[in-house]
Specification:
The chain is an all-alpha fold. The chain has three domains: 71 residues; 39 residues, no CATH class; 40 residues, no CATH class. Helices cover 56% and strands 0% of the residues. The chain is rod-shaped.
Length: 159
């Protein structure tokens, strides 16, 4: 990311010859890493030279492609670390049989979804129980408890 400093006016050398040569190799390296073609890379380097000549006032359309690409790059690994943190919350020793697509969905909601305080789980819990699945109060060896008494208990938890 240090190579991107050549686009920052504050890092430019004051001496004219040094300024003319400053950053061309960095821009070429960014073009190569970004997989721009040879002609496009040359146009970006030319635009970078014109950008330096205008003291940062005129940014050509080719150089704008590179700068907009650089603006999309993350400046830290915080997002990646946040993802691993969410994954560690869902994949525990008690949930080690969680399928990949279910874990992915849980992580998506954990990272991007609304906070639990704003999510109304009542209708989902009721539909889960009405479909014949086991509730948290069922014994592990018994049949699902389809009583309206259980639905009343669930509804009272949400009110």
């Amino acid at each position: 990311m240090q190579e991107a400093c050549c686009l920052n006016l504050k890092t430019w050398p004051k001496e004219p010859l040094a300024k003319t040569l400053y950053g061309d190799k960095s821009v070429a390296d960014w073009c190569k890493q970004s997989q721009f073609g040879g002609d496009e890379s040359a146009a970006i380097i030319i635009d970078h030279g014109l950008y330096k000549q205008s003291n940062g006032t005129v940014e050509g359309s080719q150089l704008q492609k590179l700068t907009s690409l650089l603006k999309m790059l993350p400046v830290s690994a915080a997002d990646c670390e946040r993802g691993f943190s969410q994954m560690n919350l869902f994949y525990t020793s008690g949930r080690n049989r969680l399928m990949v697509h279910n874990g992915s969905n849980l992580m998506m909601v954990g990272i991007n979804g609304p906070p639990l305080a704003y999510w109304n789980a009542e209708k989902y819990a009721i539909s889960w129980l009405q479909s014949g699945r086991h509730g948290a109060l069922d014994k592990s060896t018994s049949l699902p408890y389809r009583s309206s008494k259980l639905l009343n208990v669930v509804q009272s938890c949400f009110h």
